[in-house]
Amino acid sequence: MPRVLIVDDNESILAIAKQVAERIGFAAATLGNAAQFMTTFVRFKPDIVVLDVVMPDIDGIEIVRWLDDIDYTGRLIIMSGYGNFDRMAKALAEARGRMVVMSLPKPFRVAELEAALRGQVA
């Protein structure tokens, strides 16, 4: 069973994303802040990380840098409520060499998240 770690400071987004992931066959873990990311990541060993890039404690870009530093080979789906996010996602991927497989605007449609997750295990 593929594993997905979902990180977002919005509890509603976390609940919906976890429900979607579990419904389509993922083992899902959620974090409401980035402070515990490293510990949870090491313990859970996700195949996919779904990450909000703008959070109050540690921003998602710092997490992307950490993933790059440890040579994470999994997939990364990034989310943001900011309008120009596609450009930021592309720049982030190019700058860090990280494979950002998709960026989702927030709020996202359930079908968009489901398609993004399914596309990573096909």
Verbal overview:
- It is a single chain.
- The protein is α/β, with parallel strands linked by helices and 122 residues long.
- It has one domain: Response regulator (Rossmann fold, 3-Layer(aba) Sandwich), CATH 3.40.50.2300.
- 45% of the residues lie in helices and 22% in strands.
- It contains five helices and five strands.
- It has helices spanning 11-23, 37-44, 60-69, 85-96, 110-121; strands at residues 3-7, 27-31, 48-52, 75-80, 100-105.
- Strands 2-1-3-4-5 form a five-stranded parallel β-sheet, with helices on both faces.
- Strand 3 (48-52), helix 3 and strand 4 form a beta-alpha-beta unit.
- Helix 1 (11-23) packs across helix 5.
- The chain is globular, with a radius of gyration of 13 Å.
- The two termini are 13 Å apart.
- The mean pLDDT is 85.
N- to C-terminal distance: 13 Å
CATH architecture: 3-Layer(aba) Sandwich
Structural class category: alpha/beta
- Named CATH topology: Rossmann fold
Q: What's the CATH class label?
A: Alpha Beta
SSE pattern, N- to C-terminal: EHEHEHEHEH
**Major sheet attributes:** 5 strands, parallel
The count of β-strands is 5
User: How many distinct helices?
Assistant: 5
Number of domains: 1
Mean pLDDT: 85
The outline comes out as globular
Low-confidence spans: none
| Rg for CA atoms | 13 Å
Proportion of residues in extended strands: 15-25%
- Secondary structure: helix percent: 40-55%
For the largest beta sheet, what order do the strands appear in spatially? 2-1-3-4-5
Identify the CATH homologous superfamily. Response regulator
